[in-house]
Design brief:
By secondary structure, the protein is α+β, with helices and mostly antiparallel strands. The chain is built from 13 helices and twelve strands.
């Protein structure tokens, strides 16, 4: 029986201004959640799939950071919130990048604060970095490349072409307020080597429904596996078949079934291809969604955004800044004649050269920066 005392996690949550009910734990005094026991086949399917992507993820992270990155593992387990939180350091960087279609549901990456700083420092080419908004954006970009590679591989293995994820959102928070799925979710623990002599930890979290759907698809079940399993018992006898087949014939979905009703061999094969064929319909979704998105883009055309032209950057000690006065020359990190950076909402999108128009400064765009170049050249 509970004595009414608050746990340390609940105290941390209250200090952070978060309702402790959002922590996902059981109410005080309630029994701990019991693991639902995912099948060994599900666990093995996720293990094989995630292990097959580590080489591609290592290559992508190496390209983005400029370091030799090695990602090993993962170790798959199914945890509830309390069991997983106990494994984490006090401060963590949580990157939420839920699947929005294909296998919709919660998908989260978690790094220790030190690991997040190490990645942001490599990508920004900056030492002693702080986890500010810019650093969080960089961490989100890194996780975005990981998810992109996983989606490409998952599409190839399952044939599901509608898989998509939400843009990554990164936040550095106390572990007590980290947003995690409820129930027993899939946890993949990777060993990350950033070439700095330290072994870093990276955790990937999939909500219970996401993990189950992906595992079933990898095992050949597909999206329609559950409905098919529900239909099979009702067709186990010939009497039931006599009642089911005319109804399906009237629905227009099973033409020609009359000739196959004489035996189970003629009726059942017809059901398999029909269910499998229905899985292909979601492949039409990207074209429809693309058309809808291109139509809706006009709704935000009059939204204003801040555009900045950055001549260069430098870092100074506080005593140097306090010692500045009129006539002080500040040396920047760009050479004379180098292109200046053009930023929209503090994101690098292009480069250009400075021009003078009627005594006003302007910038002529000389290069549009690709998303990958934008990440590599940050900082």
């Amino acid at each position: 029986m509970s004595d009414g005392a608050l746990s340390q996690d609940e105290i941390d949550a209250l200090l952070a201004g978060v309702d402790s009910s959002s922590l996902g734990g059981a109410p005080m005094g309630a029994p701990a959640a019991v693991a639902s026991g995912p099948s060994d086949a599900d666990r093995q399917a996720l293990q094989n799939f995630l292990s097959s992507t580590t080489d591609a993820l290592s290559s992508n992270l190496s390209m983005m950071t400029g370091a030799t990155v090695s990602l090993k593992g993962p170790e798959i387990a199914f945890n509830n919130r309390d069991a997983f939180i106990a494994q984490l350091p006090d401060m963590v960087t949580v990157v939420k990048t839920d699947f929005t279609s294909g296998f919709p549901g919660e998908h989260i990456f978690i790094l220790s604060e030190d690991t997040a700083k190490a990645i942001a420092s490599l990508m920004n080419k900056e030492e002693n970095i702080e986890l500010d908004e810019m650093a969080m954006s960089v961490i989100g970009e890194a996780v975005g490349t990981i998810v992109g590679a996983q989606i490409t591989s998952l599409t190839g293995k399952t044939g599901n072409k509608s898989i998509a994820n939400a843009p990554p959102e990164a936040n550095n928070v106390p572990k007590a307020v980290a947003a995690l799925p409820t129930g027993d979710f899939a946890r993949a623990a990777y060993q990350l080597d950033l070439g700095d002599g330290n072994t870093h930890q990276l955790w990937e979290i999939m909500g219970p429904s996401v993990a189950a759907d992906i595992a079933r698809a990898l095992n050949g079940g597909g999206a329609s596996a559950a409905p098919a399993a529900m239909q099979m018992p009702s067709m186990g006898g010939m009497g039931n078949m006599g009642m089911q087949m005319p109804a399906m014939g009237m629905g227009g979905g099973m033409p020609g079934m009359g000739g196959g009703m004489g035996g189970m061999g003629g009726g059942m094969p017809g059901m398999g291809p029909t269910n499998v064929q229905s899985v292909q319909f979601p492949s039409l979704m990207p074209s429809r969604m693309g058309s809808q998105e291109s139509g809706n883009i006009g709704l935000i055309m009059d939204v204003s955004m801040e555009m900045t032209v950055e001549l260069g950057r430098t870092r100074k000690l506080i005593k140097e800044i306090l010692g500045m006065g009129e006539g002080t020359i500040i040396e920047l990190d760009k050479l004379a004649g180098e292109p200046v950076d053009i930023l929209v909402n503090h994101k690098l999108i292009a480069k250009g050269e400075v021009v003078v128009i009627d005594e006003n400064f302007g910038v002529r765009v000389t290069e549009i920066v690709s998303p990958m170049e934008r990440v590599n050249e940050m900082g």
